[in-house]
Design brief:
The chain has 115 residues and is an all-alpha fold. The protein is 77% helix and 0% strand.
């Protein structure tokens, strides 16, 4: 009878440990789902990249602050990319917008990694 009680107690301890591990795995699954599967809606921008670049060009100080270059240097870069590297605009991609987005992304990355 005593052996039966000891085996029953061991079984209950193993069952308690197993239920604790199952709870931990369940919590990990919940955290994974919340972090990686429940994404928010994509952000809708009020203007295209080209519209934003053109708006910035109208404000020289703001343009310099955003791109770290004057509008003249930006246009020289634009002309250089077209003449030397054959970059062309398409109906879905305008060069000015692409250059502006690349420069801003590069500038933000530089700030992140040098801070």
């Amino acid at each position: 009878m005593e052996d039966l009680a000891k085996n029953g107690q061991k079984g209950l301890l193993l069952l308690a440990e197993l239920s604790q591990q199952a709870a931990i795995i369940g919590e990990m699954g919940y955290q994974y789902t919340e972090r990686y599967l429940h994404k928010g809606k994509y952000r809708e921008t009020p203007e295209t990249g080209l519209q934003w670049v053109m708006r910035c060009m109208g404000r020289p100080r703001y343009f310099y602050k955003m791109f770290r270059m004057s509008t003249d240097v930006f246009m020289a870069l634009h002309d250089l990319l077209i003449s030397n590297y054959g970059l062309t605009s398409t109906n879905k991609c305008i060069i000015n917008g692409v250059i502006g987005n690349v420069l801003v992304d590069r500038w933000r990355t530089q700030i992140i990694f040098t801070s």
